[in-house]
Amino acid sequence: MDEKALRRAKDDLRFRGAKGTTGTQASFLQLFDGDRTKVQKLDQRIAELSGFTKVYPVTGQTYTRKVDLEVVSALSSLGATMHKMCSDLRLLANMKEVEEPFEKTQIGSSAMPYKRNPMRSERCCALARHLLALFSNAANTHSVQWFERTLDDSANKRLTLSEAFLTADAALMVLENVTQGLVVYPKVIERRIGQELPFMSAENIIMAMVKKGEDRQICHERIRVLSHEAGAQVKEHGKDNDFLERVRADAYFAPIVGELNELLNPSTYIGCAPEQVTEFLNDEVKPVLEKYKEYLKEPSSVTLNI
Prior knowledge:
With 306 residues, the chain is mostly helical. The chain has 3 domains: 17-61, no CATH class; 65-184, Fumarase C, Chain A, domain 2; 199-263, Ribonucleotide Reductase Protein R1, domain 1, CATH 1.10.40. It is 63% helix and 1% strand. The protein has helices at residues 2-12, 26-31, 36-49, 66-94, 119-143, 151-180, 186-200, 202-211, 216-237, 243-249, 260-263, 273-291, and strands at residues 98-99, 183-184. A two-stranded antiparallel sheet has the order 1-2. The longest helix is centred in the middle third of the chain and has 30 residues, at 151-180.
């Protein structure tokens, strides 16, 4: 989505062209003795020499700062994406399920030597947050352009546009480093699934009981009571989740005790996720990579499991 937004913003760019001091092209019309066709040809030719195929049909002394707003909007939207991605990685790192690249001599914390803080993700979030803040700057500049540009417009524009592109580049370089060296710990994930799966299985247990002819509301209430009791054991006493043991010990659930192992199979909870990932890589990611394959540093290192 970000690639499409950035490409659209780039493709929509036009050139101001030869519009003259106030945008009316009055001086050029006078130069060509009132021949507007020549004025239009000059306008188009200057745009072509500058690398553009189109010009803005109406401008003032400058092109409208709405253009800058659309460009910075696309970059800020990218910043929101990067911030969300790295925030998720920071949460997963806190749970020790994933870890960003960590050098042998890297210091995770100046005070606590055992820590391995997700410093790159934190840095990316910092840059992305600055990128997000630049959107309001561009919006404010456009909104107060008044009848004509003033010096507060141009001075602000020079800062906002340059910072937006530089910040986006810096954040993307950090994110590239994080994603290329990301470490995943399946055993930690497996343990967490084991801790949470009993509660996740509640709905499946209810459905299994309904198939046996039991009342859903009654079953739901019994599950609610047992799950809260098990939750108290975990939160108040630091014990393991014994929800399933409580279900097995309750005579009410005798009709499905033999099915519990099947109901707890993690693969039954992932739905169409594997197929969705494959389709996403094939239909969305691969075409984008094809567009930019000539810019990839090491095309052979980009591997998709599709």
